[in-house]
Amino acid sequence: MTQRGTLGVAVIGTGKMGADHVRRLHGVTGGARVAAVVDIDEARAEKIANAIEGCTAYTDPSAAMAADGVDAVLIASPGPAHEAALLTALEYDLPVLCEKPLTPDAASALRVMDAELKLGRRRIQVGFMRRYDTEYVKLKSLLGNGYLGRPLMLHNRHRNAAAPTGFTSANLINDSVVHEVDATRWLLGQEITAVTVLRPTSSENAPEGLDDPQFVIFETDGGALVDVEIFVNCGFGYQVQAEVVCERGTARIGEGHAMVTNMAGRWGGTIAQDFTERFEDAYDREVQAWVDATRRGEVTGPSTWDGYAAAAVCEAGVRSQTEGGRVAVQLVERPALYG
Amino acid sequence: MTQRGTLGVAVIGTGKMGADHVRRLHGVTGGARVAAVVDIDEARAEKIANAIEGCTAYTDPSAAMAADGVDAVLIASPGPAHEAALLTALEYDLPVLCEKPLTPDAASALRVMDAELKLGRRRIQVGFMRRYDTEYVKLKSLLGNGYLGRPLMLHNRHRNAAAPTGFTSANLINDSVVHEVDATRWLLGQEITAVTVLRPTSSENAPEGLDDPQFVIFETDGGALVDVEIFVNCGFGYQVQAEVVCERGTARIGEGHAMVTNMAGRWGGTIAQDFTERFEDAYDREVQAWVDATRRGEVTGPSTWDGYAAAAVCEAGVRSQTEGGRVAVQLVERPALYG
Amino acid sequence: MTQRGTLGVAVIGTGKMGADHVRRLHGVTGGARVAAVVDIDEARAEKIANAIEGCTAYTDPSAAMAADGVDAVLIASPGPAHEAALLTALEYDLPVLCEKPLTPDAASALRVMDAELKLGRRRIQVGFMRRYDTEYVKLKSLLGNGYLGRPLMLHNRHRNAAAPTGFTSANLINDSVVHEVDATRWLLGQEITAVTVLRPTSSENAPEGLDDPQFVIFETDGGALVDVEIFVNCGFGYQVQAEVVCERGTARIGEGHAMVTNMAGRWGGTIAQDFTERFEDAYDREVQAWVDATRRGEVTGPSTWDGYAAAAVCEAGVRSQTEGGRVAVQLVERPALYG
Amino acid sequence: MTQRGTLGVAVIGTGKMGADHVRRLHGVTGGARVAAVVDIDEARAEKIANAIEGCTAYTDPSAAMAADGVDAVLIASPGPAHEAALLTALEYDLPVLCEKPLTPDAASALRVMDAELKLGRRRIQVGFMRRYDTEYVKLKSLLGNGYLGRPLMLHNRHRNAAAPTGFTSANLINDSVVHEVDATRWLLGQEITAVTVLRPTSSENAPEGLDDPQFVIFETDGGALVDVEIFVNCGFGYQVQAEVVCERGTARIGEGHAMVTNMAGRWGGTIAQDFTERFEDAYDREVQAWVDATRRGEVTGPSTWDGYAAAAVCEAGVRSQTEGGRVAVQLVERPALYG
């Protein structure tokens, strides 16, 4: 495969995210094509494959990865299925874009990391797509130029109009706050060393058994203090905001103030209702960046280490939820491959 | 003194705040006049008195309060002098506007409260002037109409360009965060039950011995969670912001976005450089409201109870700073007079 | 009358604006008192006078101005009554704050100007209160410091929720756009030399006989181009905005973005519903500034010349409405007194 | 060519815009490939072709269009070369995306329209890419839902940091304001019937011979009044804003307030410095939409009629600049094909 060839991608999992990535690779991303789709639901996989020229349906990820014309793998199956698919892809030495989480816990993430270390080169990119959002990229760039001085605090707001049915307190950390875990590590370039979860009184709109909102505090090895308001039944929309407080100034993103109206005694605008509306462009850029890097023979973006570190922080967060108080985060030593 | 008479005010203390209140009562406030000024620096008091028709200078607060034509007292002396002046004013049964803090600690605040309870009627208003700021008033009003549902969280930012020389960690609670203490109690209508102070790495602009910024967390008896970023050497200006997160929405004040410019590759505006610029109107409204209520024979605004509660919360905050961890706030039972 | 005496004011006219100024002078403004009120409706005047210590009711402006204890005059009667009241005040050599318009047309304004010129000193301040609005003051100050370079264009929006019954196209110029006439002259420091009024299709909410909105263009003797959207039945609120476009940048005021809420899929805030809400502080500052200057023995603020120039521009605007096209503005030579 | 085949595109012209479109089609757009590039500079065309698998270089547009594997044409050559290329593409019955302007004047645009009418089906899409900008799309959508009522006025700001050397008053209409011409027609769904160009005093930063800024007024056949501030040497950045004023409210786009910083006494953010920064996403969407429609066998987007109407309005604008006053726009009757 050379820079100029079109990248044949096998998409593992054709649920909501997987189907969306198929649509993206087929109709939005330049330089790639969907060569294979994999789902345990054979009919679903075939229906998708049939609509795309040169695309074959599989139920077995391994068979798809072995197929001719498959140059790379995009994993969008449920989290518990990631480890097996990742290990197989590493056996085939194929580049992978793996939707978050890398794996559901730190131990399994370590096993994947071991396999990649044994292979000796980076093959895996984890789908923390906020790193590809225009506003986050601007914020990262501003922090990088040093104009504001060192970052001291990071305030985050993460609000969903309503959580899916059955969403638990653990989901609130593992599926929602995990984005702030990665954003914190990436923006600040620091590891998270402790997590504390606090709970105000719960909204009457929170389903029985879920405390919502919650307030999460991270400490980092660079001495920064990070707070996250996570409120998954806020009712009014989907809103992700971040403000970094530095020694000489602050910077804030996520206002979403594109169009301003005056109507009926009020000025203002609309709030996005879900993440596809807010982050659609970030997904497009993420997949395009992965395709471009892969065609150049490179691996960029969030690494297996990032996936592992996020899993370890989330484990600590869930423990703070259940046991109360501050929970320290323990990480293995960072391998040179992810230096 | 009837509704229609002009209120003769004795101003105790003619330092920065006291002199400003003299200017305000003399030239800005309707319905009042400065009848007496008091300062241990006799020359300073006389210089001010001489410039105002019908104003006499004193060095002894008690003499000023006994003077003919003095209908009310404004205390703007240093905090440690407040208790004596307040007790004297209560003896003379005079209405008082007392600059914050009521007194420097909870024990002395309780003594003042006891004296007012013995008198049997409210005489004292404490100078928490944020309650008179247009934006805070709007926020309070919005919370009151119930449209947003119950408040669950309150995020505060309190930033000064630079702290005065000698400003300590205790000042940071007692002189800065004390405003958020009162704003929290007033906006939410709840008492603060515990305080936790966290410290990120300190800015290189913080003077030796002062950890700055700090991050303060309040818990309330209504189950709300309140956080305060206090950063008194932020460098860029004076900025006070608050966002209340409720069950059905949020509301934020303090952006200060009156004038927007486009210049040299940037859009935006200026940030106030100190509290007199940001809160000048609030001071004007506070004093006018006090004069108006006093002329009607009423006492409104923050009470001795509010001054005491703030002192108790600040004591807990300073203990959290020095001892670490969460410190519970203990309040005496609330007397019916302040119900 | 010295700097330190209280200013005794006679208020002529006790309709909506007059009564509001009585309230302001009595209870908000420092250094002044209402010494007399005048209205052709004797009962109304007496009712107001009786509620204020030391205030006498009159039906004849001249009698009030001659009364003991009257140091200054505030004229808030209907426009057609202004000329007579102003000429009487000049005879008594009393300082005057005259609500806009100075007089209803340029010819009568010239007669008042002649009388003041004969007296030989400024006595009259015209009530163009936007000059006292905090945001306009900031804009003026920014233009004055030269940082943005010369002003080239000024875009204005002037929107009312709904016009009063019977509001005509001429009112739209004389009562609404007149504020932009003065704001233009004051902000730019230039005279208006021509007016063109354009008319888009009218809103279905415009009453029969009124074209609304209209679009007004001023040319100035400094070569600036000024446009005014005037829309007095916009439905959504009262909104006054201005953007000056200069050689090196622009500056905009009037967004009114004090409190931002998130609710029900929308972010934003409320729009003021009328001018008392938007400009209450400006009125307070205007009257306070007039009282302060008068006590110092000075006359500041918009002059008789400003009242005359506004009348001349409005006359040209009404002609452009009725005859179409561009109408040049003719001004007499500016007397040195107003230099 | 079916929905599922990859679209082979011949790109005519490989200057700044052409080279950018080659990059886009090759690496960003899904479902398309660059099959041919054409430039009179043979070396330049070959250099580009050599870097892309399956791409051939030509100097003759006709030869490229006749080549095997060329399914569609993107014209990015200078305006005067458009007519010939368009007529050739119509002869080959190929779908075309033609960068604006369609042709440099109304007469040549009419000749292209005649050829397309003779062919009997739409083949040409004109590159008015603002129709693909997220904010303009939101504004169009809001106007379409009728919630704001009929549009009455449209205020536009179009500012460039600095114009290219040699930019003339005619360029200012034909190359800059032409975007507002199309945006007006598209947003309002109305034809422009008259143009008036006004000139304030010129900025000292305007090059000799160019009056800058200028103020352009459109009237439409629906009675709307449209104003455009065009300021191509504003110095501070690239800024495109629009506010539609309707019967029940207004809507404004173009603030560009993604990231807000606090620094050194100022809040605010950065302004884009050129159109590639501001409208890069719009170009991506435009080309993707063209590729998608073409693969479905459809032609969408701005038509030859839109290109012709814009040319006619611009001709009137340039006449108003040179002759002064209001110039009526004359259009031929709209053919049913563009109904």
UniProtKB/TrEMBL annotation, chains A, B, C, D:
Residues 140-329 form the Gfo/Idh/MocA-like oxidoreductase C-terminal domain. GO terms for biological process: inositol catabolic process. Keywords: NAD, Oxidoreductase. The keyword Lipid metabolism does not apply. One of its GO terms (molecular function) is inositol 2-dehydrogenase (NAD+) activity. Its EC number is 1.1.1.18. It is an enzyme of class 1 (oxidoreductase). Pfam families: GFO_IDH_MocA, GFO_IDH_MocA_C. It catalyses: myo-inositol + NAD(+) = scyllo-inosose + NADH + H(+). Residues 8-128 form the Gfo/Idh/MocA-like oxidoreductase N-terminal domain. The keyword Metal-binding does not apply. Involved in the oxidation of myo-inositol (MI) to 2-keto-myo-inositol (2KMI or 2-inosose). Belongs to the Gfo/Idh/MocA family. HAMAP family: IolG. PANTHER family: INOSITOL 2-DEHYDROGENASE, PTHR43593. Homotetramer. This is Inositol 2-dehydrogenase. The gene is iolG_3.
